[in-house]
């Protein structure tokens, strides 16, 4: 903690950095680096610097981080400004379910779905029930109409 405090004193914008450290900073001691990787996944940080031996190996154990900076020679600023990965990253633990801005965000994608008659027999009732639970009667009826056709032998 004293090393962090000393580093903060050297910053021109120390008031902002100190407030951030005070409100959101923490020093967490773990048993080993495997536990650190598991904890990191729970926290899902926007940025994660791995300044440890075998950093590349540990990076493969982490699934939930906006960006991972591997090794002691890779500060976050490299990724932010000149290293290639983009600077628009998921914050507030959203790295658990989203990624940083990437080329796919600028591409139009269409979802395709196709259900064969036998599959509709298997899953149709569940879809109908879910639609009804959401008060989406037309959705429920669209499934029911097809199931009724199948029950009449129309395929």
Structure description:
The protein has 155 residues and is mainly alpha-helical. Among the domains are: 31-101, Rossmann fold, CATH 3.40.50.1980; 117-151, no CATH class. It contains 7 helices and 2 strands. The chain has helices spanning 2-9, 14-24, 33-43, 55-59, 76-81, 117-133, 137-151; strands at 47-50, 67-70. A two-stranded parallel ribbon has the order 1-2. The relative contact order is 0.07. The mean pLDDT is 89.
Question: Which terms would index this structure?
Answer:
155 residues; 2 strands; 47% helix
What's the SSE blueprint?
Elements: H1 2-9, H2 14-24, H3 33-43, E1 47-50, H4 55-59, E2 67-70, H5 76-81, H6 117-133, H7 137-151
Mean pLDDT: 89
Query: What is the rounded Rg?
Result: 25 Å
Number of strands: 2
Strand order of the largest sheet: 1-2
Low-confidence stretches: none
| Count of separate DSSP helical elements | 7
What is the CATH architecture descriptor of the domain at 31-101? 3-Layer(aba) Sandwich
CATH topology of the domain at 31-101: Rossmann fold
Largest sheet, in brief, is: 2 strands, parallel
CATH homologous group name of the domain at 31-101 = Nitrogenase molybdenum iron protein domain
Amount of beta strand: 5-15%
| Portion in helices | 40-55%
Q: Structural class, please?
A: mainly alpha
Order of helices and strands: HHHEHEHHH
In CATH's first tier, which class of the domain at 31-101 applies? Alpha Beta
Q: What general outline do the C-alpha atoms trace? A: elongated
C-alpha termini separation? 70 Å
Concise description?
This protein is mainly alpha-helical. It has helices at 2-9, 14-24, 33-43, 55-59, 76-81, 117-133, 137-151, and strands at residues 47-50, 67-70. Strands 1-2 form a two-stranded parallel sheet.
């Amino acid at each position: 903690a004293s090393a962090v405090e000393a580093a903060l004193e050297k910053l021109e914008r120390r008031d902002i950095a100190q407030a951030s450290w005070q409100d959101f900073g923490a020093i967490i001691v773990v048993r080993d680096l495997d536990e650190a990787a598991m904890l990191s996944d729970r926290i899902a940080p926007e940025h994660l610097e791995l300044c440890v031996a075998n950093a590349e190996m540990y990076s493969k154990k982490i699934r939930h981080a906006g960006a991972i900076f591997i090794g002691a020679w890779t500060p976050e600023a490299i990724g932010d400004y000149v290293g290639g990965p983009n600077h628009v990253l998921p914050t507030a633990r959203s790295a658990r379910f989203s990624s940083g801005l990437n080329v796919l965000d600028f591409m139009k994608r269409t979802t395709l779905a196709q259900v064969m008659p036998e599959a509709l027999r298997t899953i149709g009732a569940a879809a109908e029930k879910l639609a009804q639970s959401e008060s989406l009667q037309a959705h429920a009826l669209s499934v029911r109409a097809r199931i009724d056709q199948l029950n009449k032998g129309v395929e």
